[in-house]
Amino acid sequence: MEATWFTRAAYAKSLGANLKKLVARHADAIRQFPDSAFAQALPTLFADPDARLTMRQFDQIVSIRCAGSSPPFPFPDEWAYYAHASSHDKLDAIRVPFLAVNADDDPIASWVPRDYDRNEWVTIVVTRGGGHLGWFQSGGAANRWARRPVLEWFKATVEDVSLGPRSVRPVESIDGWLVEAGREDLGCQEIGDGGTIRAQTRQKGDGLAGL
Question: In the beta sheet, which residues pair with residue 178?
Fold first, then answer.
């Protein structure tokens, strides 16, 4: 147990340190927008340049403020952010074949609803070891053994599962954006035959999607 906890703690610190380095490489560009939540988080983030932050510490400083659009960001603390980002309470609504693969030593997604059985569309797989999106095998860092079972699952799904009729939400145009009814926070905009992809600008705030 002590060895497992040390591994997870060390991994979480490594992730936080790497994210801090990533932000440092782009700090000058971020500071060009001094009114943004991201720029305002930089003084705290770099208060001690040599400090190795854990993932949770990085989230406390940066992610809860600008890891997405407003609303729902900013969050009051990291726990509110984690609750919002959690997917376990979304499983009941899934209506397409869904595979979730998680390692039992993942330091980020450390809890998995292993006994979940309320939705036949959902398959949850927990592997012994693998870390966070890891599952590496010999042959280089990009060689991951999880690809094979995932592709086998896709193949079986295509061959053996009949989806049947599906209900589709009507699409409407709001301020030039195409959105699904009831999901006005997500949308796309046609910009012609080519050009720069434009993000959903109807939302307020600045985002740091992916962290």
Answer: 173, 188
